[in-house]
């Protein structure tokens, strides 16, 4: 059974200082997006929907055309600018922007993170095993495997029950190791938090059925009408999934993974991400010519 990969790539990347979604990081200038799509092809992906801002359309279309554009069915969806806001509404609204282009069950990822092949495959397999429209899946990473050595990052820290279903998600900002090696961060109210490192977190790798769209749409229509939200509040996907779980309208299976993620949040992230990708190629995890083998694999799906 094939699936669609929805890639969230409309962020402004203010801390990075450029279009990090298209930053050349692999041994031959590959982007993290290309690695994610390659891994998704191996897991059964036959269609990619990339959510971008309108001002990025030309750059993305050119990049896709010269990489995996001839291998897969690729569509673009647009997260439109909002008058009076410096940034789009957030990741929850970005998923809604893809709705018209999604024709099947789908995975969601960020364009600027490397997730690991096994995490994509196991999350997709978990959704297939559930067979219930309002039951979804989430890749469950250990916090210590998701940090950047270059600065604080945002993660959704998850509470998971013994039956492996998520019971709550809390968005935490500025997660990093302090001078003593302790992991610290701040919640959305700015309150400091400390963590051991073995906590389960979401990296925004989700597996959804199309049933998620009306659930998000109903809440978003209310959210954007709340006074004060129009200027800066974010419609975060993790927060909205938390709300679905609380209301009892959806269930989410946490799918454990030992993968170590890398991503580009800060300019200094480039060197360590590039080093990781070089190591993976030398270890045989990825071919030197990424899309030649991916093209061959996709014809078997």
Keywords:
single chain, 301 residues, alpha/beta, 12-stranded mixed sheet, two-stranded antiparallel sheet, 8 helices, 29% helix, globular
Summarize the SSE layout with pairings.
Elements: E1 3-8, H1 32-43, E2 45-52, H2 57-65, E3 73-78, H3 91-97, E4 106-110, E5 113-114, H4 117-130, E6 135-142, E7 153-160, E8 166-177, E9 183-187, E10 192-195, E11 200-202, E12 206-208, H5 212-223, H6 237-247, E13 251-256, E14 262-263, H7 269-282, H8 290-298
Parallel strand pairs: 1-2, 1-4, 2-3, 6-13
Antiparallel strand pairs: 4-12, 5-14, 6-11, 6-12, 7-8, 7-11, 8-9, 9-10
Helix pairs in contact: 1-4, 1-8, 3-5
Overview of this protein structure:
The protein is of the alpha/beta class and 301 residues long. It has 8 helices and 14 strands. Strands 1, 2, 3, 4, 6, 7, 8, 9, 10, 11, 12 and 13 form a 12-stranded mixed sheet that branches. The chain has a two-stranded antiparallel sheet with strand order 5-14. Helix 1 runs parallel beside helix 8. The radius of gyration is 18 Å and the shape is globular. The N and C termini lie close together (8 Å). The C terminus is likely disordered.
Helix-strand category: alpha/beta
Largest sheet composition: 12 strands, mixed
Secondary structure tally, helices: 8
Rg estimate, integer Å: 18 Å
Elements, N to C (H/E): EHEHEHEEHEEEEEEEHHEEHH
The beta-strand count equals 14
- Net shape: globular
Low-confidence stretches: 293-301
Beta fraction: 25-35%
What value does the average pLDDT take?
Answer: 91
> Alpha-carbon distance between the termini?
8 Å
Helix content class: 25-40%
